[in-house]
Fold:
Amino acid sequence: MGNRAPKSNPQEVSKEKPKEVPSRFLYTQGLNESNQCGKDGYPLSKSKCVVTAVGGMNHALAILNTGEFVSWGSNEFGQLGTEADSYLSSYILEPATICPIALPRSIGAIRIVSISTGIWHSACVSDTAQVFAWGLGTEGQLGINPKSFFIIKNTESNEKFISKPTLVDSLSLKKCQSIYCGSNYTIVKTRDHKIYTFGNGTEGVLGNGNTSITHIPQEIQSLSGVHIKKIACGWNHCLALTSKGVVYNWGNQLKDIIHGNDPILFPQIVSELQGYFINDIACGDYHSCALSCKNPNELLTWGSNGYGQLGIPSLGLEYVARIPIKVEIHEIAQVVCGGLFTMARLKENTVMAWGCNRQMQIGQGFPNIVREPSVILYQKSGLKRITCGYSNVMFLSNEIVLKDDIINPECEMKRRVLSNDYKIESSRDLTSDRGDRSNQKH
Structure:
């Protein structure tokens, strides 16, 4: 399906229904070829309050405060979980159409507590610990046998998919809690701290030594009993964060970057991060991030720097970091990755970004490659969280985010020259490296 990974950040919703759900507006920017960003950055009506949202290659899922579970964007492989959007109409750029996701009626009334998107598939976990999956399933990433009779075949692409959420029967007794979709594989965490994987294990992403393609969930035995707090999925590699701040990795992060790079078939502790207490992790296609909760907290990145996604300006674009390197940003509250870019939300709700900007996911007025961490949103007090699709970013806020709130360095420089205003010091680095490097190797 091409060398691109989804960058959905799997999200969980509290099992206990909160007394009051904050109103959160969802603003999105970046690639919009399948309406995943909607009109003027708003795929949902401003009257809709979003609890959580995730994005894949060109589709997205969200849970609303009303309990509605919705999707929008491309439905080429049934990844929206509805038949409301056809293959052809998904590529006509019009305001996004929100599609309610209909779970099987036979299941009864349930709440969704965890959602995730892969490159062409989607999945969720209910409050009754049931796993549902839909979308492209040719490589076993749905946990359902592709030979099953209810798989629909896309005659345009010769791929098999399921167009509606379908119960993954093999996980019904596993007490599932969270789900994490990679490019063409899926990882499930259970309430008793067991990790199950399925899909394309060619590059070791299944973490249990299996390098075949399988739809049968299999446990990562080496993580049995380890209290895993969070899992992050890249194109060919994974990270797992424990409750003690320890990070494991497995798979093949540098596949396609370094010829003959061998995969890690079983989870290994990232020894260079020991001594830091890590409280957040994120994966891009070929790079990884770990956020320490030291005071001041520190961000460490490693992997490919082909689009400047490591956030270290002194490194060349051909550079590969095999061990974590510190990024000179402090007071970070959250870090997320798109396919080839990285974003950080600071504690005072300024957002910084770096890496690939070919689809304007970092913003207008920036070069195609942003080589150093640059401010794109300045101290938005209502900002609650950011999350990324492959080539877009989503801002979840208690305040409406306007297009004019997003910093455009070219406009900012003109404004500063005209007004002689130099108060926003963080804008000083936003105009660096304006050359178009879109054809440079990653």
Observations:
- The chain has one domain: 11-429.
- Confidence is low (pLDDT under 50) at residues 1-6, 14-21, 86-91, 415-442.
